Amino acid sequence: MSYQFHQIASLLEKMTSSDKDFRFMATNDLMTELQKDSIKLDDESEKKVVRMILKLLEDKNGEVQNLAVKCLGPLVNKVKESQVETIVDSLCLNMTSNVEQLRDISSIGLKTVILELPQSSNSLAPSVCRRITGKLNIAIDKEDVSVKLEALDILTDLLSRFGLFLVPFHTQILKALIPQLESPRQAVRKRSIVALSHLLSLADDGIFDSVIERLLKGLKNNSNSGAVRTYIQCLASICRQSGPRLCNHVNPAIEILKRYSQSDDDEVHEFCLQAFEAFVYRCHDAVTPHISMILGICLKYLSYDPNYNYESDDGQNSLLMDTEEGEYVDTDDYSDDDDISWKVRRASAKCLESLITTRLEFTESFCQDLGPILILRFKEREENVKSDIFHVYITLLKTIKSTNALAHDPDSMEEVPRTISLLQDQLKDIIKIIQPLMRERSMKTRQDCFHLLRELLSVLPGSLGPYLDEIVPGISYTLSDKNSTSNIKINALGFLCSLLASNTPSYLFQAHISVLVPLIITAVFDSFYKISTEALQVLQQLVKVIRPLEDPQLSLPNDFKMNTYVEDLYSATLKKLLTADVDQEVKDRAISCMGQIIANMGDFLVPQVQSCLPILLERLNNEVTRLSSVKAIYMIAASPLRIDLSLIIKDVIPVLGSFLRKNHRALKLNSLDLLNKLVENYSQAFNPQILHLVIVELKPLISDTDLHIAQYCLILLTTTAQKHPKALEGIHGQFLPAVLVLIRSPLLQGSALTCTLDLLQVLVQTNIESLDYNSLLNKLMDPIIVGNEQLHKQAHHSIAKCIAALTLKCPWEAIPLASRLLDYIQKSTESNDLKMSFCLLTIGEIGRNFDLSPIFSLPQTLIECFSASSEDVKSSSSLALGAVAVGSLKTYLPLILREIEVQPKRQYLLLHSLKEVISSLSVTQYGLSQLLPSVPSIWTQLFKHSESSEEGSRNVVAECLGKLVLVNPEELLPLLRDALYSNNPVMRAVVVSSIKYTISDQPQCIDHLLKQNLSEFLSSLRDPEPSVRRVALVTFNAAIHNKPTLVRDLLPTLLPYLYSETKVKSDLIREVEMGPFKHTVDDGLDIRKAAFECMYTLLEQGLDRVDVKQFLSHVQAGLCDHYDIKMLTYLMTARLAILCPDAVLQQLDQFVQQLRETCTYKVKANSVKQEHEKQDELKRSALRAVSALSQIPSADKNQHLMDFLKTIKDTPDLYKIYECVQKDSNSNNPENTSMDQS
To answer: Residue 106: inside a domain, yes or no?
Structure first.
């Protein structure tokens, strides 16, 4: 510490030196010291350092002054509050000095202090704000313009950074700012506007409204054009800062702006359009009635160019605009020198972009009416305006793409969306206008052309094929022009790559290959690595176009001489491949490109391939390029040309085996993929013993820690067993134990389980010792039957499926094995329920594929197991009965239906068996042919029990009915619809619930029928019975989640009923006496929960069809409901803050109030532990919502939110949770805020 004091004292002494270099170096060293976290200054040192820095601000040497200013930043964080106040007072005093240099340096110093002041300090920042504000107000009133400008800049910084601390001084600041709006100096007016807009974002409603009314009154009565411009600019700036607060004043403001937009002043036109743009972005609902008027004004001024006659410049009369340009032509009043009409056109374009971005509901109308006008305006003469018009059309394309992604189901058979067909009609005009623009000297225009064409490709894949004759010359011009910049070349190559990769037929490129190949090869050898990388990617796509792998014999037309280009492409790529001193991206791309050339054209390059393959092998052994090499060799190995790899394959396989030990997941996956392809396509090219080096590496990878890698290992083993079974002889002990452990994992399911079944079926057919049927069967069964191993239920299911898969390849073993298992069940005691459950599941899986009707005692035994005391045995026997019925339908289905009728106590389990039959048989065409004759009898039996007193049974009946309707929708859906009008509410609930099981996220033949009838089923949302309304809400939720296209058009009708179910209904609340206590029961809670879950799903799938304001009001109501509802609405609040921030911002006060009540609620001290835990979880969820709300742009201007955040920081318990929540939100992607929909 003493060393630090000595060091500081030494530096301070040097700062008094007459030598400016000494002063400079000492100041620089002091700044270095101040930036260290470890530095501590005592009171005396602080005073000395502050005095010296302030003195150096007046130094005669400018460099020393600049360094002294930079020292202020770290200094304010190292000294006490009193010293910071001394600094601020001195700077404020110097800011009004008569010496210009001192004034300027003091202003910079004040800005530095404001920027570095810690926002979290309790008293420092408010104290500094108090000291500065009054002095700034005085400085603003000074006549010296430079002082005014600096003071306004500092005030703006202060308001934007510490606005909350200045609330008590708003009236004083306002008195200083308002007169500056009348200043004759434009710079003063502009800075006053910025400061005023920051002030009003935090001002109370009284001050805010008074200023807005003053501005509107000034616009109404003022004839001074300068004042009018200022007021309009001020309105626009205030709207950008605090748009939602301006909503109440939008109507009168827009009426006034509409009047001024008809004036003769171009600057007023520009400012009006900028104000309209701000209103459109920030006052979404309030501006809605004026959208058509704003659009009309924008279109009028988009073509406003008084000094230019486009007709004389453009002979393409067919594309001339039909506008009112003539009325503006007045050559006596305008000249090119003072023409600012381009600013009006630019403001108009930006306003149009805001309309397209925010008004998704008008996308089709914009595409139809605005699209052609924008295309015609591509001929704009001013480069910057032309660029803006391009961006407006590009924004329109992006909007069309996003709205179609939401509204149109790509798997459905519906007609092409209207916007897409409109766009296709405009394509010809776009190309006609763009063609000459692609050869303009302006780089910006050419870049915009490529950007637009690339966006067109993403919306209309393959649409540019017929226009290659018009497009390719533009690409050629850019790539061959010596004046083209790197960026424009990269853009041109990027577009060309997209064009080649689109769905354009290969033959359309025939005439242009001769032009493109030399250009691309030249670009490959460009000195800038990014151009070279992009060119190699284009070259790779070009190879696919010249020789498509899908049908290598049927490439381009017969008169196309492929040979002339193959050698050039190969030579260029090889040269780049052999260049050592290039960027990593270029190396990777060259390797990938060479792999594509050999894969697609290897039969034309037989001698060259044999010399190139060793190079790829060398790259494979290089740590930097090994992943790219694996992918390249995979392309070659997968090629239908069957390229000769005998030269390297024996070296490649061991290297790939060594890669499986690396801690590099992508490398392992790609290596396994390549190994599988080599075994599949080149099994004759190598000795099977070489695979031992690979197989020994698989054991640690076959694990449930990474099922994706495990699946690739299983596929490789399956292919090896098929193509090279000898490779597994004597070595199966290296992988089989790991496979058996994986089978017993509860995580094994889906495609990984399917791959396991495939492997076992192939292994049992290899005739390898110890891999025969009985050996594998014992390995699977013994741990459970003999070893009494305790496994998860899911593992029992997996093992049962594996045994059934083995038996499928040895069908003669099916009946004996099932009999043996049945015998074990019959002899088992109650204590062996896990073994019994396993045996039942295995019998079921075997019976699914074989007719077990010869085992006469099986049906009775399965039904007797329904009476077991173990729930696992009951459910397993139910599943087994259904599965056995799948393979022996004629024997078992009548039995199940009869037992359902005569065994009411076993009805629930028997219905599950029936559900298994329907589910299993309805997925294949053969199964459907078996099931269809029995449908009438099943349907009748299900309807008999749809009014069962047991809710569980009714739920299973509903699922069975839904799945059965999918079997024969044309006949059964009308029957289900008729049952909707039953007098029994239980029947109606079952019918509505069954519809949920007909809706899938995959396309189905029932979809068109559902779309016609779903409104009738969902009309149950207004059923008088609460239980029916609840299941209707669940069905509605399923439809929105799985297939939103079914209900999007019904939303206007259904949403009022949905919203009505979010309210607490007193008629559904009752009191229950529990001894001496009374307990309140809310029968409407489940309905409300279902309604809010439905609303949550709407956030993701249908928010564009929803009135957001109305939606938000119901979310707010849920914030003070029951615990379960609160948890849902907190999730929704966080999501809404991301999806529609402006709408949430308008109602932020209400959200904050409800969240504050939750976070500050105190649980009674004598409450049970569960109550405390529930409240903690509520607080955590509420604070997640608060964190999301605080991320909304301009949310920091909301006084209520800022006060609440301060309360959180001042409450240690809340702040601790809030910090954890913020860390979580930073580590996770906020876009993935989702809820489990299961």
So the answer is: yes
Specify if 424 maps to a domain.
no
**DSSP state letter for 1081:** E
Among 794, 767, 978, 951, smallest CA distance to 875 is for 794
CB 1237 within 8 A of CB 1097: yes
Over residues 1049-1088, the pLDDT tens digits come to 888 888 899 999 898 888 887 777 777 777 778 788 899 9
Q: Which amino acid is at 1143?
A: A
Token look-up 């060793």 returns 614
> Is pTM, for the whole model, over 0.85?
no
Query: CA–CA separation, 35 vs 853, rounded Å?
Result: 86
Decide: 1063 and 1102 in contact? Cβ < 8 Å.
no
Q: Which long-range contacts (CB under 8 A, 24 or more apart) does 22-25 make?
A: 23/56, 23/59, 23/61, 23/64, 24/61, 24/63, 24/64, 24/67
Contact 1, 42 (CB under 8 A): no
Query: Any idea what the CATH number is for the domain that residue 764 is in?
Result: 1.25.10.10
Range of the domain at 6: 1-116
Same-domain status, 1063 and 1172: no
Predicted local confidence at residue 374, as pLDDT = 94
Q: Could you tell me if residue 99 is inside a domain? A: yes
Q: Identify residue 908 by its one-letter amino acid code.
A: Y
Q: What is the per-residue pLDDT across 1003-1023, written as a single tens digit (0 to 9) for each? A: 888 888 888 888 889 899 889
Region 807-826 average pLDDT: 91
Residue 1082, helix vs strand vs coil: strand
pLDDT tens digits, residue range 734-792? Answer: 899 999 999 999 999 999 999 999 999 999 998 888 888 999 999 999 888 887 788 88
pLDDT at res. 487: 93
pLDDT of residue 1032: 93
Q: Which of 203, 323, 200, 193 is nearest to 271 (CA)?
A: 193
Are residues 1143 and 1060 part of one domain? no
Q: Looking at the structure, tell me whether residues 1007 and 1088 fall in a common domain.
A: yes
Query: Are residues 1122 and 1204 part of one domain?
Result: yes
CA distance 976 to 935: 14
Q: What is the pLDDT of residues 446-469, one digit of tens each?
A: 999 999 999 999 999 888 989 999
Is 616 within 8 Å of 577 (Cβ atoms)? no
Helix boundaries (H) for 164-224:
170-177, 186-200, 205-221
Provide the number of structural domains found in the chain.
Answer: 4
Pairwise CA distance, residues 1149 & 1138, whole Å: 17
Q: Which of 116, 141, 173 is the last residue before a domain boundary?
A: 116
Mutual orientation of helices 563-578 and 606-620 as an angle, nearest 10°? 30
Q: Which of 889, 802, 791, 890 is nearest to 846 (CA)?
A: 802
Same domain, 1013 and 1117: no
Q: Residue 1168 gets which letter from DSSP?
A: -
Q: Any idea how long the chain is?
A: 1238
Q: Residue 320: what pLDDT?
A: 36
* Number of alpha carbons in the 13 Å side-chain half-sphere of residue 940: 7
pLDDT surpassing 70 at residue 315: no
The first and second tokens of residue 1022, run together, are: 């207004």
Tell me, yes or no, whether 1076 and 1150 share the same domain: no
Residue 763 near residue 771, CB atoms below 8 Å = yes
SS3 152: helix
737 vs 752: CA distance, rounded Å: 16
DSSP for 1035-1080, please give it. Answer: HHHHHHHH-GGGTGGGHHHHHHHHHHTTS--GGGEEEEEETTEEEE
- Helix extents (H) in 744-870: 750-763, 773-785, 793-809, 814-827, 833-849, 858-864
Tokens, residue 767? 């005739």
Q: What is the pLDDT of residue 1235?
A: 43
* Paired strand residues for 1077: 1074
pLDDT tens, position by position, 553-602: 544 455 456 777 899 999 999 999 998 888 899 999 999 999 999 999 98
